[in-house]
Amino acid sequence: MKMVMAIIKPFKLDDVREALAEVGVQGITVTEVKGFGRQKGHTELYRGAEYVVDFLPKIKLEIAVPDSLVERVVEAITQSAKSGKIGDGKIFVYALDQVIRIRTGETDADAL
Amino acid sequence: MLRCRALFALPLLWPLQVFAQAEAPKTANSGDTAWMLTSSALVLFMTIPGLSLFYAGLVRSKNVLSVMMQCFAICSLVSILWLIYGYSLAFDTTGMTAHEVGLHSFIGSLAKAGFRGVPRDALYQTIPETVFAMFQLTFAIITPALIVGAFAERMRFSALLLFTAGWFTLSYLPIAHMVWGGPGSWLGDLGVLDFAGGTVVHINSGVAGLVACLVIGRRRGYPTQPMPPHNLTYTVIGACMLWIGWFGFNAGSALAANTTAGMAMLVTHLATAAAALTWMGCEWALHKKPSVLGIASGAVAGLVAITPAAGTCGPLGSVVIGAAAGSICFLATSRLKRKLGYDDSLDAFGVHGVGGIVGALLTGVFAAPVLGGAGLSDGIDSIGAQLGRQFIGVVVTFVYSGVVSFVVLKLIDATLGLRVTAEEESDGLDLSLHDERGYNW
């Protein structure tokens, strides 16, 4: 099992959700986050006063998937979240030790 | 028998009726009165909620209530002072003679203090004097409220109340009297044109703002820390309310529902539109993008600048005045302020002081009939001479308001203290001075 965590542009969320549904993903956790990468921040100007805003709003997705699905999930996100411009985001994949469904007590693959 | 008595009474009534007709032709004109009642409400609407929202949106969220509170408190405090002595010192004409300079050329007497001598049926021109007093009160309210923008986010509330009372008494009332006191008032007699308050309201408050932000000092962290407006939607709504309310301010200053009022409303609107577009255009050219705060600030600058000219300029003149105000106020707020380093937090001086000066001077130009104006002051025959009078009006107001503001602020600073503590300032005035927060979510 893997945890796929992706940071994407907020306006791509709907596209990514649809692409993941097609692949067969059963659940996604979505969080509104702020941060910076190569895109850096942006500047705001109020009556000539310039403010550098370091952190840009992004969307963080967390998807727990069985090993068999990892490659297709990563590909689906890569394709659907891509605008080709700087700031499209990143995907992180890491090992997942244990999953438990709280209602039934099922574990691991059964709980996904 | 009854008929007989009635016939007998007729000749007795006859001369009485003639006498009554000769003595009581003076009743309020209902059209004028209706418009002035409306205008008074419109001008009050400019301060609460208009200016209050305009300023509230520009501060940081931790200070949003404090500026709304300041506008509200100023409105209430000035109203009571107006009753006690304000109206009388500003508008009583006792002891004034046209073109004679004496004490009452500078300040009215106390003959109408407490509204003594203002009975229910007293008239001012064609409207009830009560309506005139109420209309002028709304001007006296907005003027000190405008200054709030300069020292926002750092003044003690008690110091604000004291400053309002002191400045209103020592600067607003004398300047209002000198300009609008009627025949015998000093600047009025000189021929200074100020239809609706370019000097009395805008230069007066703008200069007080400049002095206030210099005396009280910069906000902690200015200009290195970001202090962006916390809610520009409030600011835009406030600017829209100011634009609409200003029709009462300018068209109401005709004190009648007449042709002057009609033209005043038209030129007010046109100047505002021109200034909004000009400020937006300057930003687009120099900062790459047209901003919402820019177009709204431009509109306010245009409203300020057309104020003294509204009764005398024509439509084309108003567009020039608006465009001049839009570009010059843009430069004052975005360049001059940075360069000189003073922290006029919400640009009370940059918009009202600078816009007021631009308007006061150009009033002298566009009053000329050859430029579509309604005419220069009595006895003044050239644009140059009128411009000279306008200049005198600007300098007198600038210096007088500057000195009075400085003295009042220094006195308060030495006794009560002007500024909140560093901790109170960083916590925000809403919590530290009022034990409240604007937003609980």
Percent helix of chain B: 55-70%
* Strand ordering within the main sheet of chain A: 2-5-1-6
Radius of gyration of chain A: 17 Å
What is the general shape of chain A?
elongated
Topology of this protein?
The complex is a heterodimer of chains A (112) and B (441).
Chain A: E1 2-8, H1 13-23, E2 29-35, E3 42-46, E4 49-53, E5 56-65, H2 67-80, E6 89-95, H3 108-111
Antiparallel strand pairs in A: 1-5, 1-6, 2-5, 3-4
Helix pairs in contact in A: 1-2
Chain B: H1 2-23, H2 30-58, H3 64-91, E1 123-124, E2 127-128, H4 129-151, H5 157-180, H6 186-190, H7 198-216, H8 232-251, H9 259-287, H10 292-306, H11 315-340, H12 348-366, H13 383-415, H14 422-427, H15 429-434
Antiparallel strand pairs in B: 1-2
Helix pairs in contact in B: 2-3, 2-4, 2-8, 3-4, 3-5, 4-7, 5-7, 5-13, 7-12, 7-13, 8-9, 8-10, 9-10, 9-11, 10-11, 10-12, 11-12, 12-13
Offer a quick outline of the entry:
The complex is a heterodimer of chains A (112) and B (441). With 112 residues, chain A is of the alpha+beta class.
Give structural notes.
The complex is a heterodimer of chains A (112) and B (441). Chain A is built from three helices and six strands, in the order βαββββαβα. Chain A has helices spanning 13-23, 67-80, 108-111; strands at residues 2-8, 29-35, 42-46, 49-53, 56-65, 89-95. In chain A, the strands form two sheets. In chain A, strands 2-5-1-6 form a four-stranded antiparallel sheet. In chain A, strands 3-4 form a two-stranded antiparallel ribbon. In chain A, strand 3 and strand 4 (49-53) form a beta hairpin. In chain B, helix 3 packs parallel to helix 5, helix 9 (259-287) crosses helix 11 (315-340) and helix 10 (292-306) packs across helix 12. Chain B has helices at 2-23, 30-58, 64-91, 129-151, 157-180, 186-190, 198-216, 232-251, 259-287, 292-306, 315-340, 348-366, 383-415, 422-427, 429-434, and strands at 123-124, 127-128. Chain B has 15 helices and two strands.
